[in-house]
Specification:
With about 70 residues, the chain is α+β, with helices and mostly antiparallel strands. The protein has two helices and five strands. The protein has one domain.
Length: about 70
Amino acid sequence: MFLRTRADGSIVEVLSLPQLFDPFAASVQGRLHAGEELQEPEAFVKAELIFPSGELLPQCWLDPHYQQP
């Protein structure tokens, strides 16, 4: 799955979808898509990622207590 960073709009390929969907994981392993060479995997804070359309990630992916008032 591809997401964008909020800061500069760089494209990030998410390498672990279960980690992305886990609300207890604050970061996700991904790879920047910049230039012609394949970049090394690194950790990205999920709160700093958005969908390519500009939409925010679902709250249930970010907050383990999203259903509590």
